[in-house]
Amino acid sequence: MSNRHLISFRFSLLGVMIILTILSVGLVIGMQFHYGKELAMESATKAFYNTANNMEQQLLNLKRQARNTVETISFFDKLSSPPQDGEMPALAPLAKVISQNNDLYALYFAYDNGDFYELINVESSNSVRATYGATAEDRWIVIKITGQGQRRTKRIFFLNQHFVIRTFTTEPSNYDPRVRPWYIEAQSSSTIIKTEPYLFSNLKAPGITFAKKLEQGTRVAAVDLSLEGLKSYLSRQPMLPGSQVFLFKMDGEVLAQASWLAESERNSEIKVLPEKLIELVAKQTSKNDHEELTINGIVFLAHVEALNPSNLDDGVLGFLISRKELMRPYMEKLTFSVMVTLLLVLLLAPVVLYFTSLLVAPIKLLADENDKVRHRQYDKVKGVDTRITELNNLSKSMVAMSDSIKTYEQSQRDLMDSFIKLISKTIDYKSPYTGGHCARVPEIATMVARKANIANYGPFKDFDLTSKEKWREFQIAAWLHDCGKVTTPEYIVDKATKLETIYNRIHEVRMRFEVLLRDADIDYWQGLAEGGDPATLAEARDTKKQELIDEFAFIAECNLGGEVMAEDKVERLKQIAKRTWIRHLDNCLGLGHIERLRYPEASLNLPCEEPLLSDRPEHLIERTPDKFFADAKTPFAMEVPEHLYNLGEVYNLSISRGTLTTEDRYKINEHIITTIRMLETLPYPEGLKRIPEYAGAHHETLIGTGYPRKLTAKDISLPARIMTLADVFEALTASDRPYKKAKTLNESVRIMSIMVEKQHLDADLFKLFLETGVYLEYAEKFLEPSQIDEVDVDAYVKQMEATKTMN
Questions:
Q1: Residue pLDDT, tens place only, 284-334
Q2: What is the sign, positive or negative, of the torsion defined by CA atoms of 59, 64, 65, 71?
Q3: In 3-state terms, what secondary structure has residue 334?
């Protein structure tokens, strides 16, 4: 490391000033945006208030004109009754009255006999022509309804501007003005009445009616004010771009609306009044209340203003304005500010680059060295030469830290490996008959894996255990492949006879036979004492004793499990079991409280007669849920026996082959389940996560007949298949099993070749195992000299290839 003059880290922070400049400008722009938003809201609110005031004044003017019109036509005496068809020119004064305001849709008279006479201003709105089918030539429409009951007729006259009839239509009508609300309300008032906005029956558009009773109630004069003209009025208001305005009633009915949306935002034009506008009226507390609504992706600010000119409720004005359009002028200024800031930053870039290079270059180098530590490449970690004091010290610290981590990690790894091997040795030490199994399987597996790693063909082409981590992962899996055996009871693993548990229960059976032998002597002497024939009694005694001796010899032979139990032997066993003996003592005395739970209530009728051999309730030990592994990740496919153990004497002696019951066999096989569950509970670092997979599949087959998960070839990785081959070969060649003699090398290979044919072992691995001489290398190291015989490798390879060709 160079000792030249170093620069303090704080001087390198000069480059940070550029960042502070940007932050300062950003703060100013942010404040500008904030106040710009307030100004925009103030401008929008002002536009809202102006529009609301204008609308109030407009409505007030319209109502004033409508009232004046009603007052004017109420003095028109010529319509004391409906005029005749030829009197149309007489309507000119009325037409002049309503033509002065196109918002006045029609004026009409309703008579107390049900007659109705109406003059409609065609130019009051565009919808009038379309509704009535009027032509461009038509200027006025007159509707005249006369008659009584079902004979009432409705005549519609289309007139030009000179009141000349162009055409007319006649149709039956059931319209009676006397039942209309405006008529009824006018009859009960002495002044001009005004209705709430409603839908005109003919025009199908909203409007208001002003009406007055004339001549002691013989007729009513009325004027219809169409609210459709309000839309045009609203459209002429100086609103901001992106705005929409609604005049609506509190029940949500829209009376008029106008829009100032841009062409690109037309799809966001409101068709149905948003409920929030109505809700906003109810909760509005100040002039600045507004909410946001999102419609078709566009955010609008919502505001409402109630209209109450002359203390009359004329509805509510609702305003929506696009927030984007509202902020557009200010955003343009902000954009300009940002562009100026960016230009300033670009001009300062060379300065920034210079100062940041003092920091970035060594930091990058330190990051590279840190990656080496992260990947545990401690030997490659080097110091970084930098003139910045703090970074120089950090570099030295990182090198020292790397050395410390390396030392600590190696000690931890050594401790872990020793602990793993300790577990493995503990399992072997647990039973003198399986001693060395957990140590020898890793030896075979490692030998095969090394050969597979070298091979670069076929299934081994992509096989890679070259890294230390992968090797360690594989070897730990090999060492722990049977760690679950730590929970397997020794008396099950070492069970050499059928009646053996923690001890060989043949001694109990022998004692019962001893009792029966003595009973034979007692029967003899008791017969003599009662005056029996000595010769007859002696013959009976000797015959019975010989039977007992033969029967016990048979039971003892059954207990060894060396031969298959044929049906006739099982039948003889059951017959012998029926022989009885007398028990005088309570069989529950001297039992621990747990064992006592398995026994039924003690019999008080002692002495009692019992069968010589029996399957009793206390021989059944219940299976309890495995709470320790209740959250196991891996599902298993093994069939679980109902009971944990079955110690029944007849049941055990009737085992057809070997010395293990179904429960015993499951308990032994269960070690692989325990292995997987134990290994899955460990928090593995990266590089060791496949240990449960490698260790937990060495009892599976390639065709799904193995255990505990019934995996098939596609589910079993090559390292797991190596583990299976190693486990089988070690088991076949082991000379420390109590239940079998040690097999020779050739016998073991022959059995493995059969397992390959049955697809229990991987054929490619077995071929590699033979051709590379791993079998012989292992044999010379671990087998007895008497076990090592000649193996015809070529013959086995040719046999496998022939089988493969046939398949």
A1: 544 556 677 777 667 777 777 776 644 435 677 777 777 777 677 767 777
A2: positive
A3: helix
